[in-house]
Please model this.
Amino acid sequence: MREALVRDLSASIDRLVVDELLNAYEAMLSRQRAGDSDGALTKGGLFVEHLFRALEYIRTGSSPKEIKSPTATAKALENDPSLPEALRILVPRIALAMVYDIRSKRGAVHVKEISPRKIDAALQVSAASWILAELIRIFHISPEHSVERLMQSLSRTTIPFVENIGGDAIVTSRVSAEIEILLLLADAMPNGLNRREIGSRAKCSPPSVTRVLQKLQDSRFVHLGIDGRCRITGTGEAYLSTWLADQGRFAA
Model:
């Protein structure tokens, strides 16, 4: 997914800024998926800074090295009539309210209080994913059907236990082979994975992958398409959601 994001966004935004924006996004996403809510919230602030650097590049043709005041930058964007409304109003306000402020305005949590950090991190990741999808919608150079799939993928970024490490999506907790493959397929929707991709990502033996895939197909949890790619079904998603709920985790 990153290659597609870089290709489309760097057509209109400085490539270095795009890389830094996506680095912050991936770090935030990985920490949220690993259960490190504090780490995710910290990376959210960095994501907003690089986002506003990108928006300033679009607005002025140059990108500042740092954003001293996100609020002031948002105001400058809002007052620029040359920008589309999404970049003037929606993206900056969502970035401030759901990513930046959610990190900085909570204040200290007292010992006996229930910490809001998990739900805050989940909201932050969803907002950041929406922002990237909106940027792709506006600035894409790829065919529309490819962009639509990419936007759908961005809307499904909160599958727990799956982290992107060095460009590889892997399950970083010990789970059964059945759950591991379902997690990988849920993360890979809507494009799915072929047999080779599943084998390279799953931390189980090739015979186990073959056996589990057949079992999942027999249970109607997974569908093998004519294109040779496996995709999780609605029944499989329901099964996975029940398992995640038992672990105290949820997928969005």
In short: The mean pLDDT is 84. The domain at 162-246 is CATH 1.10.10.10 (Arc Repressor Mutant, subunit A). The first strand starts at residue 162 and ends at 165.
